[in-house]
Design brief:
CATH superfamily: Protein of unknown function DUF952
CATH class: Alpha Beta
Order of helices and strands: EHEHEHEEEEE
InterPro entries: DUF952
Strand order of the largest sheet: 1-4-8
Radius of gyration: 13 Å
Number of domains: 1
CATH architecture: Alpha-Beta Barrel
Number of helices: 3
Largest sheet: 3 strands, antiparallel
Number of strands: 8
Distance between the termini: 28 Å
Helix content: 10-25%
Length: 115
């Protein structure tokens, strides 16, 4: 089952993303490579993802991706108590990226998401 979501999000260190841009594709972070797919979140999931996996980390980017452009390589699989998360089996083509935005830390140490 594919939820009706047009945009999914990847949180990534800026240096890792810059390497991907130079290479012409994003193959994932070390955890993605270990798991065999690229982890993404929906808009409703990205705040929890940031808290669980990126707490206190600076120099991050929030990458918005056109989910339908990923075709059948994008799978929705259960995680965290049964919620469906988007997982990409293969590299992320850069032409599927809609926007790349800074994800700075706020004064409270939490990430400040764009509106």
């Amino acid at each position: 089952m594919r939820p009706p979501v047009d945009t999914i999000y990847k949180i990534a260190p800026a240096a890792l993303w810059q390497d991907a841009v130079r290479a012409g594709r994003f193959v994932g972070a070390p955890v993605d490579l270990e798991d065999g797919f690229i982890h993404f979140s929906t808009a409703a999931q990205m705040h929890e993802t940031a808290q669980r996996h990126f707490a206190g980390q600076a120099d991050l980017l929030l990458i918005a991706v056109d989910a339908p452009a990923l075709g059948d390589a994008l799978k929705w699989e259960p995680s965290r108590g049964g919620a469906l998360f988007p997982h990409l089996y293969g590299p992320l083509p850069l032409d599927a990226v809609r926007t790349v935005m800074p994800l700075p830390l706020g004064p409270d140490g939490g990430h400040v998401f764009p509106a």
